[in-house]
Design goal:
Strand order of the largest sheet: 3-8-7-6-4-5
Radius of gyration: 21 Å
Shape: globular
Strand content: 15-25%
Distance between the termini: 34 Å
CATH class of the largest domain: Alpha Beta
Helix content: 25-40%
Number of helices: 13
Amino acid sequence: MVNSEIILKYGCNPHQKPARIYTEQKALPIKILNGTPGYINFMDAFNSWQLVKELKQATGLPAAASFKHVSPAGAAVGVPLTEVLKKSYFVGDIELSPVAAAYARARGADRMSSYGDWAAISDTVDVPTALILSKSVSDGIIAPGYTDEALEILMKKKKGKYCIIEMDCNYEPEAVEKREIYGITFEQKRNDLIIKDEMLENIITSNKELPDNARRDLLIAMITLKYTQSNSVCFALDGQVIGVGAGQQSRIHCTRLAASKADIWYLRQHPAVLQLPFKAKVSVPERDNVIDQYLRDDITPNEMKGWTNVLETIPERLTAEAKAAWLSNLSGVSLGSDAFFPFRDNVDRAAQSGVKYIVQAGGSIRDDAVIEACNEYNMVMALSGVRLFHH
């Protein structure tokens, strides 16, 4: 039976009924293997699938994304993890495959935002990937396939209600897409722009040394931005996103948000964090929550009282000086922006979080000032000439 329509419980909110997804083609390119995905689930699923499919095409590596509310909290390719990252991501007890490494990295980019995520995997989901998801709070997953053992593990999540979607890898949408706002139909050519290495060739800074790993990370940042609600800025390092600033009206606020997330990502690897004395059987989400509070500068004594339920002892806090000393080691970070930088303040803030390589569209009346700022920090900046707004 051809399935061209799925009736949904409701739309974005419970009062938005009726709701459905459908296609005017012969059939939807998906199979629901488990659960009952909702309206927002499907929005996350189809956006995240495009992201990981393009990451795989661009790098040749398995790719994964962790989506929340139609923007990626993290995205990555299957680069092996260091022992420190394994501990920081709570996957030290799992023998990681390249696919599992990609998802561990994607979820590890912003662990607080990934709580209750939608996962997307470019390749067949295997047991190690399913094991990571089994101890994570996640709403669902989309992938081209699942091993029998992985599917068995995932179908036990959420009391058997975990949403599992199988995607047809060969599906290609129509060239023109439509959407409706307030009863008015909008139509445009689908954003089928292919992000490729040639977009990094126009290097306009004095420093023109762009190593292969930075090229890869800049491509990861650009592809991630293509599916991030604008305005957006993305920080990437070692094959993964480490901070996304999404949906901000001001470019500098995007950069500040992405940089602060990158700082937290790196601070989570501080020895004091890795050695926090968690009690036995404390869940991974509870650990993530306490770590996030531990790294805050403004936490109150009342908020810290809850730590006694999860920690054996209350540790000494990291001082501002200790944090700054640790963050001074963060380097070699790549940054992508979905449009031009209007002022040099974006470069100044990026430099504080270890950014060395930048790709942005260019075209600002203050391009010269931005280039000058990059030269002061000995950064490498390429102008792609491509805007990546996504709404």
